[in-house]
TrEMBL record:
Protein name from the UniProt record: VWFA domain-containing protein
Lineage: Bacteria, Pseudomonadati, Pseudomonadota, Alphaproteobacteria, Hyphomicrobiales
PANTHER family xrefs: OUTER MEMBRANE LOLAB LIPOPROTEIN INSERTION APPARATUS, OUTER-MEMBRANE LIPOPROTEIN LOLB
Listed Pfam families: VWA_CoxE
Species of the source: Methylobacterium aquaticum
Segments forming domain VWFA: 212-371
Amino acid sequence: MSLDAATRWRLILGEAAESACAGAGCRLGGQAAAMDRALDWLYGRDAGGEERGVRRQGGREGSALTVPGWINEVHTLFPRETIERLERDAIELYAIDDVVTNPEVLARVEPNETLLKAVLRTKHLMAPEILVMASKLVQEVVRRLMETLARDLAVAFAGVLDRRRHTRLPGARDLDLNRTIRDNLRHYDPERKRITVERLHFFARNRRQMRPWQVILLVDQSGSMLDSVIHASVMAACLWRLPGIETHLIAFDTAVVDLTRDCDDACELLMKVQLGGGTDIGGALAYAADTITAPERAIVVVISDFYEGASEAVLVARVRALSGQRTRVLGLAALDSQAQPDYDRAMARRLVEAGAEIAAMTPGELAGWLAQVVRG
């Protein structure tokens, strides 16, 4: 977002400059207003700011932001160099250390995705003993995410229901309700109008032996893609446990980092992610292409906002080459519980023309899509 000079001065000076800036035609709205609230949350608390060179005067009203919420806000609103300054000021000047330096607070917070994102964004600021505690928080949030996704994967990759055969193995989705009622009618109680079920019947499932598939997840490490990075790491850990699936997880910005060795530990994966930097999607695709052993049984999932920082022509050519060898290429503009994408639509259209499929999915939807492809 580009700001005019009057808006920049208004953000620097705070609410005290409201009347002067309004006279110059500057009124904060939208993203600029959100920036002002985030700045006020930090610098508005400082009565002695002038002595330390921090001259911004805060607003009159308190903010409802929490520390994790504020961390996530500034990472959304400001450029990288400003984020680093804000985080440093928060910790060094104002001792706002609830998440990144205070073990007592960290020990009693309720693990959730907001805290997880705040930890991942500030882990480079943490002392070693605090990082150990933060890792436990990450583990708990990841465990909860994996429980949900593991169920989605189990459903997606389960065999096809065979109504001609039955099994003794119970499964709620496989219940043969008609036969169960019919065989238990003799236990019907007319007064209470209830059937006592003594035996359940379940349909069997056909489970075909799958030939091995490669699933290569390429994850953009841009700060804006953090939600997708979290869910991609959890997805990789869950896929790693499936028979017949060879999973690779590759993180990229302008460089490529192969995290496949840690695929069995989603927490370890996340703690190794380095957020920020540029974007070279074409370079990541070149690395994926070299990883493929059987092109017709490979799936490349690119999780990115598709704002390419390197050559766009090279990116399109590499997608076309992968599609030409009958490798499936899926581009995900978002992979999270909301699946609300913000991406370069013009580039997405070019990639579709080159043979890719572009979508925004929840992890459960991605599991279903992968299962469809693998089953043929």
